[in-house]
Specification:
The complex is a heterotrimer. Chain B is mostly helical. Chain B contains 13 helices and two strands, in the order ααββααααααααααα. The chains are: A alpha/beta, B mainly alpha, C mainly alpha. Chains in contact: A-B, A-C, B-C.
């Protein structure tokens, strides 16, 4: 009796899921705000313009780990020769490069109506790998140091000043190491760029395996630096500790910072500072897996997501990211106040001077591994 | 009879024999102060113990009704039930995660029972070679740290396409719960009086019929207990689902984890409260079944 | 011994297959993967890498689990002792109703509770400040190794206490009475008379707790920062960020080794007991 009741319930559940005619599966790496963007904003918008289609969003977790999960899934399904479970994926740069090289994603940008709206380097170059045609940037983001002006009267302007400040104010600075979020990773790569020697070579290449050895002093300094700081659990962990007054400064993603402030999860008086010689930012990319059942729908979805209207209203206004397509395309779609809000703490010239990309893939991996060997251990 | 005040043995006994109390008033007052002090100490100890026990839980409740809370405020800036509405909206994650969790738990119970009822019967009634070794075998999953096991199960499942599916997660949960269900089923069947089965067979029932009409109903309470245990373990299971179910299968513990790591403490707290309900209910109910001396026999 | 029942083997087969496929096979796989180098031969390169990257974490894990187990044992003995030897009925009743609460709370819920309870501005510190026991400036965050230990002990004490209290309740009360009659204090009765009789149960509970703590992923991930952290978090990180099964399995074998050592201690104690009996 109980068994048949359960079977009936299960059947009902399965039937309600099969009811919608077409499903668009979107997998996104990154924090919860990435999933919310699709669930609460983009998905319903797409469903309205495409009746009968259901958008299902799945989050795979923050940092490169989230993108790695998507990579593994696509890889496994490619090996099995099956259609991929996901129709649209939103991934970080490192994973995009690997996926393009391994043939896990398809070229679609040339046929996309909004494809020409982005001319930035980041649309064709993902940490040194050529991804022309494979990706469309969803947004551009930037890390910066968030600080509480009540506790920090004179925020440091460079990495060197930051290092000294942390020494004088132990346990008042926090970042998440290299696990659990890219804000900590950004801090570390920025550190290596600042103290490790040739920053330009790290960004542009060529890759030289011997460069690792030149980072010894920088890594030793970082290890000493870590004695004076708090290691937080992740992107949100740093923001949370700032909120609770447990630390006074920490690297954060600018968009998460503004979103948290708007939600009342961060005190209204917190400010941002972009320290020199620079801190990384990154785009996240829309991509379409090589073998999916919904090619047309996927392309339509990305076209909607990268249209000037959605970029203005969704990306900039609602979620406080810098737009994925070129800013000039948003003129007229966004009121000046919203635009200024984005640059309140970090003016465009500071962004241009100190906003850097991440190091190229091989150097990126080397930095992470050296960190684990020399600093964390 | 309270406290540790020693009684001077011989003289007091002699005094009582002579029919008069020789305990001086001062020492009575002393004893009373001592008793009061020790009672106060006990109450204080109990209070601290209760704080340590329930404080973290009270924290959960506080966070579930906080709407805006940032430093330097010691208590939420504004209270409200906004996040309950966010969690419980029909399109919300929590409802679908709850449904997923419950379905997985039910399926896990079905699979675990389907496998462990025959196994328990065989262990209890039939002659098996290396019976002790087999019992130990079922205990083994509890003896090895499970993260490494789950990692490799996930890897195997990748190649057969079971990751991110409900089937995969149910298999992992059922294997994890097998130790309870097999051991308890074996104990439940062993406790059924053989004579009753033999009586049924004597009247002409086939072995199968005797099993279904006599043995199984008598063993049912024990098996029900193990079913509830397996259900709860599956509902609360996090690590296996983290490796095998992500990203498509989101159970309630995974939702809790994502919300917490994302800094969304209100949603995490509300989800935690939802998870607590079956556990607390079970604890109140099982009070009657968990006899202390039964537990003392565990492992012997 | 009569002929083994074929039907019996048939009935137990599905359970065996399940354990084999979902536990023994992955176990063997992890051992093989940890010891096999890319070329195909046996080597310890993965252990070397694991050591290079995570030696601090290995020691950290060992430290936390050992301290948590010892503290759990200590608190369980105290509570079970009070339940058995106390002469204040209301204390026993109150304690009995209180101590079980964390028992059925899953680790992940406990981790979430502790994350906000033990923070610098968490409920615990705020309560102390409100009661005047502490200055606001003195509050520290417990969200590091202390938080992990506190969470583990909070969760495991009811479990071990339950077993221990049951065992203590079933020993012959006469031994306790005899001790008390001879003038021994209750503490002495507990340590010298009761504990040796329930040592077996205590050991089982502690061994189970030890292994459980080595298996938990949610608590170290949610309660502490990422450096240093427990091996389970490192394993998850290796898999999720790099797909590096080899190093993760090497770390897994190290944790098997830790659990194995404790299990060996238990077995040795058991064998000694059997021999004495």
């Amino acid at each position: 009796m109980r068994n048949s009741l359960m079977a009936a319930g299960l059947a009902a559940f399965l039937m309600t899921n099969a009811a919608s005619a077409q499903t668009l599966n979107v997998a996104t790496a990154g924090d919860q705000n990435m999933v919310d963007y699709i669930k609460d904003y983009l998905g319903p918008m797409f469903e309205k313009s495409h009746p009968g289609v259901k958008v299902v969003a799945v989050g795979t977790g923050p940092g490169d780990g989230g993108s790695q999960k998507i990579f593994e899934k696509l890889d496994a399904q490619k090996k099995a020769g099956a259609n991929s479970d996901f129709d649209v994926v939103v991934i970080h740069q490192k994973a995009a490069g690997t996926m393009a090289q391994d043939g896990l994603i398809q070229k679609y940008r040339d046929a996309l109506p909004t494809g020409a709206l982005v001319t930035r380097d980041t649309a064709t170059n993902a940490l040194g790998t050529d991804v022309t045609g494979y990706v469309m940037p969803m947004f551009h983001s930037q890390t910066a140091i968030a600080y509480n002006p009540d506790l920090v009267k004179n925020p440091p302007g460079t990495y060197a000043e930051l290092r000294d400040w942390a020494k004088q104010n132990p346990k008042q600075f926090g970042y998440n190491g290299i696990k659990g979020g890219m804000s900590g990773v950004a801090f570390v790569t920025g550190w290596v760029s600042a103290f490790g020697g040739d920053a330009a070579k790290l960004e542009k290449g060529p890759y030289d395996a011997a460069t690792k050895a030149t980072w010894d002093k920088a890594m030793a300094d970082l290890k000493a630096f870590n004695q004076n700081v708090v290691i937080t659990p992740g992107n949100a962990g740093t923001l949370d500790m700032l909120n609770r007054g447990e630390i006074a400064m920490g690297p954060v993603w600018v968009d998460m910072f503004y979103t948290w402030k708007a939600d009342g999860k961060l005190p209204p008086n917190m400010r941002l500072k972009l320290v020199s010689p620079g801190m990384p930012g990154q785009p996240m990319y829309y991509a379409i897996p090589a073998k999916t059942a919904q090619n047309k729908l996927a392309a339509d979805f990305i076209a909607l997501a990268t249209s000037p209207d959605v970029q203005a209203e969704g990306i900039v206004k609602r979620f406080n990211w810098y737009p994925g397509i070129d800013a000039k395309n948003l003129q007229g779609k966004l009121d000046q106040a919203a635009w200024n809000q984005l640059f309140a703490d970090i003016p465009p010239d500071a962004l241009a001077a100190n906003g850097k990309p991440f190091p190229i893939g091989p150097y990126f991996n080397d930095i992470l591994e050296t960190y684990e060997k020399k600093v964390a251990n | 009879m309270s406290g540790k005040s020693p009684s001077p043995p011989m003289s007091a006994a002699l005094d009582l024999q002579r029919g008069r109390s020789t305990v001086p008033p001062a020492s009575v007052a002393n004893a009373r102060v001592w008793a009061l002090g020790s009672t106060a100490l006990k109450i204080a100890g109990l209070a601290i113990f209760a704080f340590l026990l329930f404080g973290p839980l009270a924290n959960l409740v506080l966070w579930s009704v906080a709407e805006r809370w940032y430093t330097p405020f010691k208590l939420p800036v504004s209270y409200g039930l906004r996040y309950w509405e966010v969690v419980f909206r029909p399109t919300g994650d929590a409802m679908s995660s709850l449904a997923t969790s419950v379905i997985i738990a039910c399926l896990t119970v079905v699979v675990a029972l389907a496998v462990s009822i025959p196994a328990g019967y065989a262990l209890a009634r039939l002659k098996l070679p290396w019976r002790t070794a087999l019992m130990i075998l079922f205990l083994l999953p509890q003896a090895f740290p499970s993260v490494a096991i789950y990692i490799n199960v996930a890897r195997v499942f990748y190649s057969i396409g079971l990751t991110g599916t409900i089937t995969g997660v149910v298999l992992v949960h059922a294997a994890h719960g097998l130790v309870y269900s097999v051991w308890i089923a074996a104990a439940a069947f062993a406790a059924v009086d053989r004579d009753l089965e033999l009586a049924a067979r004597n009247i002409g029932a086939s072995p199968l019929r005797a099993f279904f009409t006599v043995t199984l109903p008598l063993a049912a309470p024990g098996i029900m207990a193990s079913a509830i245990f397996v259900f709860l373990e599956s509902l609360d299971e996090f690590t296996g689902t983290f490796f095998v179910g992500v990203p498509q299968v989101t159970t309630l513990p995974l939702l809790l984890y994502n919300a917490s790591m994302g800094g969304n403490y209100q949603i995490a707290s509300i989800t935690a409260l939802i998870l607590l309900v079956p556990s607390v209910l079970f604890m109140i109910v099982i009070e009657r079944f968990l006899k202390a001396d039964v537990l003392s026999k565990v492992g012997q | 011994m009569a002929k083994p029942s074929f039907l019996g083997l048939l009935l137990i087969a599905p359970a065996l297959i399940m354990i084999g496929a979902l536990f023994l096979y992955p176990l063997g796989f992890s051992l093989a993967a940890a010891f096999t180098e890319p070329g195909g031969g046996l080597s310890l390169t993965h252990f070397q890498k694991a050591y290079e990257l995570y030696s601090t974490d290995i020691l950290f894990t060992l430290f936390i689990v050992v301290v948590s187990t010892l503290l759990t044992g200590l608190f369980s003995i105290v509570i079970a002792g009070i339940l058995t030897l106390s002469e204040t009925p209301w204390l026993i009743a109150a304690l009995r109703n209180l101590y079980r609460w964390p028992l059925f709370i899953p680790f992940i819920v406990a981790a979430q509770c502790m994350r906000t309870f033990l923070a610098k501005n968490g409920l615990m510190n705020n309560s102390f400040v409100a009661l005047g026991l502490m200055e606001p400036i003195q509050t520290t965050s417990f969200l590091d190794w202390r938080g992990i230990i506190i969470t583990f002990v909070w969760k495991q004490v009811p479990f071990v206490t339950l077993m221990l209290a049951g065992a203590m309740a079933s020993i012959d009360r006469a031994t306790i009475e005899a001790g008390r009659n001879l003038g021994a204090s209750r503490l002495r009765v507990l340590v010298e008379l009761v504990l040796p009789q329930v040592a077996q149960t205590l050991l089982v509970g502690l061994v189970l707790s030890f292994v459980t703590m080595l298996s938990v992923l949610s608590v170290p991930m949610m309660v502490a920062g990422s450096q240093p952290t427990m091996l389970t978090v490192d394993m998850a990180f290796r898999i999720n960020s790099y797909g590096d099964y080899a190093t993760a399995n090497a770390l897994g074998v190290i944790s098997y080794f830790m659990a194995g050592t404790v299990a060996w201690i238990y077995l040795r104690h058991n064998v000694k007991r059997e021999v004495q009996a």
